[in-house]
Amino acid sequence: MQDYRFHFQSKEPTRLDIALADLSRDIPLSRRRIRRAIDEGSVYVNKKRSRKAGTTLQGGETLRIVMIDDEKLTPFNADQLVWQHRTLYLIDKRSGQYAQEALHRSKGTLPDELARHLKMTPRQAKLLRPVHRLDRDTSGLMLLSSDPKQLQHLQSLWHSHVHKSYLAVVSPPPTWDKQRITLPIDKKKDRLGRFHASATGRACDTEVEVLERHENSALLRLIPHTGRTHQLRVHLSHIGCPILGDRRYQGKSHARLMLHAHTLHIEKPALAQSMQWTAKIDARFSNLFPSLIKQPKKINDTSSQRD
Fold it and tell me: Going from the N-terminus, what domains does the chain have, and what CATH number goes with each?
């Protein structure tokens, strides 16, 4: 990741793209690259994201560009929208897709792509937010809302009226069949972006069950009873069974992070009626564990229609 900061000093009003081209001569950044960075949401003026190349600077502004060159994005497809009810949208997220705005981009994230697909107005698109979050490399069910009151209502009841389960492939396989992991996790990341189990951290609770073993790996069902960032990844790594493909937490190299948000059950009064969904199984899971192909293919167990 490239992170550049500048202080713009001028007595003449100047366009943002022109100012950045002048300030970044020593890097260097082309005018085209700067415009693309602005369009992607990689540029900040006084700590606020700016996506307009023609923004006029008056002098005294602090500018920042945060970029990842040659980043490969997983495109959004219309069939990922598996259920919709008014301002609620359930997405079957793919590994590699951003669940929300990242420091270096707002364009190309799932909220941005979904808003474009639904042809939302700029105001509607600005309100579209994930109700809960999945890591970029995690796949599976993720709910979004474009109604701020609804979003707040759902989030206030999320831990008491929502039940989720994940599938994970770990290597090496555990020797036990079931375990409850209650290791607290630190609030802050280390310099490499990793969280760590710590006696002084926040309480965390993960239920783990081995569904199947195959050679040097195992398929697990994970039920998180708390929702800390990287909780499942930290817990499994700490007990010596890191998730396959999770290089950040000592997992063996693989084509993707083998973590999948498999089921989602939301009870009343979080929604007007209780709903339950089961996500499709990614082929990389069923290739390792063919028994998963026998799982139901329907994403929405309660209602297969969009409302």
Answer: 2-67 (3.10.290.10), 78-294 (3.30.2350.10)
